[in-house]
Amino acid sequence: MYQIKGYTAALLVVFLFCSMVIPLAASKPTVLRPGMRGAEVESLQSALRKVGFPLKVDGIYGPETTKAVQELQRRQGLQVDGLAGPATGEALEGLLASENLTHVVSRGECLSVIAQRYNVPLKDLMEANKLASSKIIVGQKLTIPRALPVQSKPSQIDYTVQGKDTLYAIARRFNTTVTELLRYNNLPNPDRLQIGQKITIPVRTGRLPMIWPVRGRISSGYGWRIHPVYGRRHFHGGIDIAVPSGTPVRAAAPGIVSRTGWMGGGGLVVVIDHGGGITTWYLHNSRILVRKGQRVRGGDVIARSGATGVVTGPHVDFRIKVNDRTIDPMAWLP
Prior knowledge:
With about 325 residues, this protein is α+β, with helices and mostly antiparallel strands.
């Protein structure tokens, strides 16, 4: 009987030890390395292509990807090891945010399709590359000029009517008018909205109306800074909002959750796709409360804040991307 109790006690000690060790292990940032496969490798390859490396985006971390990462590290003054860790990711993001992109022409591509992909007028693309005609060849490098996140035509948001919604309240929330909502949706009676009804909301401001994901002190702004952990200059693609761990993190605007989970130095991350090439990113959470493919409303709680990934303390790193390029969130937040 004594041996059984001792065995049980030993198991309890092992369990408690593991329960303390596992969370620490889970907090280590993801490092992509040769031989790995998957969506994260594909994202890395896509980003490398955008800054001028003629890579095939196949999701396989092979010799070509390793060589590109090493060259990027060499140019940025980083340790040249061919491993894509947080420091390499930060350097790559800085290039994407602060410079014109480079596109390497692939077989079957034409100039108009490339311009549409990057939301850049064809005329601007031709001028940036000093092209007299739209003729391009495979392997040609094109400079993609930075495009302002302003849409010449009204963008639209698909909205699902919730309980207690009124047309007036919806119009105020999205910075539009009841008249516009009536015109866009051909509503015969504005006083009779039904829960679950789909309506289209026009957005004419050139930017998506948003709310703050959390309220707190801005501990680090958008742009170049000295990294608080690595101690070197890098480009910060969002704003850090200092809040206690466990603070509810809310969706800044309606959309569909496109990605959740562990993302390297960002820790536990939620990404929401708002359509029109606009996504919002919520980094360093302690818990994720939504799933991929879930539709959310602006203000819905999607996560709990925390200090996962590469951080010095609990906060929310909030980012807005337009066509995969970060913009200053302060320009869009109320």
